[in-house]
Amino acid sequence: MNTRRETDSTEFTIVPLPGVQACVYYDGGCPLCRAEIAAYQRAPGGDSLRWVDAHGCDAAELGPGLERRDALARLHVRRADGALVQGAAAFVAIWAALPRWRWLARVARVPGVLQVLELGYSGFLRVRPLWRRRGSGGAGTHQA
Questions:
Q1: Are the CB atoms for 51 and 37 separated by under 8 Å?
Q2: Is 25 within 8 Å of 79 (Cβ atoms)?
Q3: How far apart are CA 106 and CA 143, in angstroms?
Q4: Which tens digit of pLDDT belongs to each residue from 16-32?
Q5: Beta-strand (E) ranges in the chain?
Q6: How much of the chain is helix, strand and coil, in % rounded to 5?
Q7: Which residues have a Cβ under 8 Å from the Cβ of 26 and sit 6 or more positions away?
């Protein structure tokens, strides 16, 4: 195998694979999500990832094993090796690919940190519909 990976028990990639892109699936119908993704896209290294707005893409763009409702409900990343990660582990995969954010991916490797991040993300998901309604006037959005 010609790739190099550092992983922990959560199996997210910490060292980006040279020349190989991961694919990020996000909910472009969520104003807060859209703003955060835009910041990652503008960051150095952001062009090394493929960004798919699950809110408006063709179903085929989601690839195998990912349904639109799941992609809209939680952030997902398909790693270069084809594995699909979600939630806090997906954020860590993004951070690992972005040089200015890579330190945060390393912090997430500290035992217990990823679980705390996942709890925080799960809490955000409970209140996210409030931002969706506020950002869109409350009509025509997918519910996560």
A1: yes
A2: no
A3: 32
A4: 445 557 999 999 998 88
A5: 23-26, 50-53, 76-78, 84-86
A6: 45, 10, 45
A7: 33, 34, 37, 51, 52, 53, 54, 71, 75
Pairing of strands 23-26, 50-53: parallel
User: How would you write 24-60 as a 3-class SS string?
Assistant: EEECCCCHHHHHHHHHHHHCCCHHHCEEEECCCCCHH
**94: which 2 tokens?**
């993004």
Lookup: tokens for 56: 């408006």
Cα–Cα nearest to 117, from 104, 126, 129? 104
42-61 tens-digit pLDDT: 999 999 999 999 999 999 99
Contact 122, 109 (CB under 8 A): no
Burial class (CB in 10 A: 0-12, 13-18, 19+), 6: exposed
